[in-house]
Each structure stands twice: as C-alpha cells, then as structure tokens.
Amino acid sequence: MMAAYARRAARRLTQQDLLYESLRRAILDGDIVEGARLASSRALAEQLGMARNSVLYAYERLVEEGFVTATRHGSRVNAVTPGGGAVLPPPAARSAGAARMLARRVLELPRRGTRDGATALRPGVPALDAFPFVQWRTSLERAMRRLRADDLGYGDSAGHPALREAIAQYVRVSRGVRCQPQQVFITNGTQASLDLCARLFADHGERVWIENPGYLGARSALLAGGLQLVPVSVDAAGMAPRAADWHEAPPRLIYLTPSHQYPLGSVLSLERRLALIEHARACGAWIIEDDYDSELRHGGPPLPSIQGLADDTPVVYLGTFSKTMFPALRIGFLVVPPDVTEQVAAAIGTLERQGRVAEQTALAEFIESGRYARHLRRMRKLYEERRDGLVAAIGRHLAGMLTVSADAGGMHLSARLDAPLRDVDVSTAARVHGLHLSPLSAYCLGGPDMPRYNGFLLGYAEAPPPVADALMATLARVIRELAEGGG
Predict the structure, then answer these.
(1) pLDDT, tens only, 200-251
(2) Angle subtended by helix axes 190-200 and 216-224, to nearest 10
(3) What is the average per-residue pLDDT within 81-108?
(4) At what angle do helices 357-368 and 161-175 cross, to 10 degrees?
(5) Domain boundary at 318, 347, 369, which?
(6) Fewer CB within 10 Å, N- or C-terminus of the chain?
(7) pTM exceeding 0.85
(8) Taking a C-beta distance cutoff of 8 angstroms, is the pair 234, 213 a contact?
(9) Residue 53's domain is classified under what CATH number?
(10) Is residue 137 classed as helix, strand or coil in its secondary structure?
(11) Closest CA relative to residue 15, chosen from 62, 59, 57, 54
C-alpha cells in the first residue's frame, strides 16, 4: 500500500511540475500574453484530466515568482520585463544575444578538427597500446595506500613537492635545464601552462611572436589571454625573425617549439637560439620554450634546452607528460627563472588550486624509480620503427603525390602535397575513410606575403608498419579520385 501511495505521489508531483513549467515557458515566450486571464483551476483540471490540487500548485508557484497575479476575477498574466522595463526579446533573438555576449577573442579562436570518428594518423596521441599499464597501476596503488586525510584537501598550488623534485632532477639531467624544485610549477598540461604564461608574463594587448605555421593550442591560449599575435616565418632552422622585426614589432612574449617545430619538425639552430636570447634580453621579452616531445628524438640524444644555455636566460620552460605517458593524465609543468619564482608562486596561489595528489605522487615515484626512463627508451625505438614504416609506405603508394619533410623525432611528420589539390579538400574526403589528416594550411597565419603550406601533419604513433601501409594505399586512392574529378 505504501509503495502504491508513493507512486501516486510521484505521479502527482510530475504532473504539477510539468504544468507549472509549461505555463511558465509559454509566458516567457510570449505565447500567453500580458493581461491574459488563465483558465480557472477547476476548468483546467477537468480539461487536462488531472487533480485540481496539481493545478492550484502550479498557479501558486507562478504567483510566487511574479508571473501571475491572483485576483477575485481570476489569475492574470503580468508583464514579463527585466528591471529596466524592456520587454524580453523573442527566443531566437535571445539566443543570438547570448552568443554576442562572448568575448570577441573567444569567438576568434581557431577551431580544432571535428570529432567524427576519424582517428587514423591523428597527431599528438601516443601509442597507448604500448603503455606499461601494470607498472603504472602499481605506482598508483602504492600512492593510494600512502594517502592521508590531509591529502584530500587543496594541495600546494605549485604542485606536490615530490613531483616537483622529481621533475627538476629529470630535466636537469635529460634536457640541461638549470633549475631547482621551487622553480617548477605543476599544471594541468601544456594548454594550462600556456594560459598561465599569457596571464602572468604579459598584459592585455601586448605582442607575442608565434611560429608560422605554428601550434593551434598556443594560438588559442594566447588569443584568449587578450594578446596580439605576430606571426614569424619558420624555415629549416626554425623561427626566422628579420632584423627589422625587433624594431617594428618588438615582442613581450616569444612562443617557440625549438627542439621539434610544430608542425614542420625543424630544429632551431644554436645560432638562432643564442640570438633570440640576446634580443629578448635587450627588449625585455620572455621566451616561452614549449618542449612538448623532445624526449622522443630519433637517432640521437635529446637536444639541450634554450633555458639551459645560460644562467639568466629570460625563458619559461614548458613540459608535459601527455605525449610521453598518456593524454588523460593531464599533468604538465613550467619552469620559471629564479628571480621571479616568489612572484609566480604568489600569483599561482591566487589563481590556481591543485588536486590529484595520488596521480602526482605516483608519477613522482614512476620517474624516480627509473621506470619512466625505461618507458621512454622503448617508445623511442617503437616510434622510430613506426616513422620509418610510414615513410616507406608513402614512398610505395604516394610517390609524386606527397613529399615528406625532414623529421628528427616525435610522433608525427609533415608532408607536402604535390598533387594539384587543396589539403583541406583531401582531408575532408579522407575522413570518410577514417583518416584524420591535419591540413598544414590550418596552422598558417598572416597575409599574402606570409608563406603558405599545403600538406598534412601525419601522426604515426598508433600505426604499426602494416597498418601504415594500408592507410597510405587508401590515401593514394582518395587523392587520385579527387585529382581525376571522381571525389
């Protein structure tokens, strides 16, 4: 009996709530106009076949919220106006107005590729099938067992001390970074690091030099930070600013991917590294060194960082574990110069909150135990094999259609489209076949005097050689069909 009563009560509650919401929406949308008299509660209850009390409940809520006034002659609809007395616009106009309320810089952000199921050849995604799950799970379980009640609150805004210590030790040895643990700040990945750099090291409207073509994520973060983007061309030796650029458009920030330029893959020469440091010091600029996948260099040790070339370089060094571990980990870091460490710590303490102590503790242990270094050695060998397999497949199936650029490492390569087609058209056609081709033209900025690129960014981390061969055979068919007008 009690269960039946509860079901009837739930049904009545649903009916009266639905009636209230329907009347409220009709008044807001103008379907029931100002001054209209609502049907009597008895008449409406009979018309709808529901209890009169449910109608009374809905009417009482409308009265309480100011939509309706109850009088001796019935319930009448009030004027639905904001405080200033202006009548609300119709729904379509309100939707458009909400979109216009977004900041212009947000509306102008570059859009990422659509998530349409095309995953083959995605850049930036590591070989997740080769990740050492058992070892990582062991580190996580060990970290969970060590958690205390105090660890469940907000942690140090700079990150877990053990992880900061492990990262400082690692980048000193592997990347030549000059730092102490207090200079290391843990973030939620490179994108979060870039957002912090835009807020901490530049004021609204100041100039930031970016590589052209360059990383879309950096462009988004810096635009969202209200900064003025100045594209600087890239060649085989990396970012190539002209001498006049330093006088005509001196930067506040210089964003670089010097060890593996994104997306073209070039390496910034030592001569240009030293020149950038010298000019940045002279004009009071900061260099943001995004070292996103330098640990995965093929055919030799990772190149030393720009940050480590001198003691007092004006460099903010960015690193991430999204490429070397897995993207869902969402752990990155930045290393700041010692003379601004205290100010950065204070600012981050105001702006950010840390959590995920277990993951940070586990990662610290994973690094300190040597398992991280062993994992990287395996991944370098694996990615080199998969890179070679993709290059060979391009040679077999796409000779005369694609030309691979020199590439020293990472998980992707760039290829120039030699066929008389637009890369965006080929990319669109290839998605139907499950291929995720990132058009190089999408990474370009600037006017007609800036260089334009027509080709693709091809990720090979998830493509063993037999898979890469099949994918390139498919891509060759797509290009031929488009070239012949059959696509």
Answers:
(1) 999 999 999 999 999 999 999 999 999 999 999 999 999 999 999 999 999 9
(2) 40
(3) 56
(4) 40
(5) 369
(6) N
(7) no
(8) yes
(9) 1.10.10.10
(10) helix
(11) 54
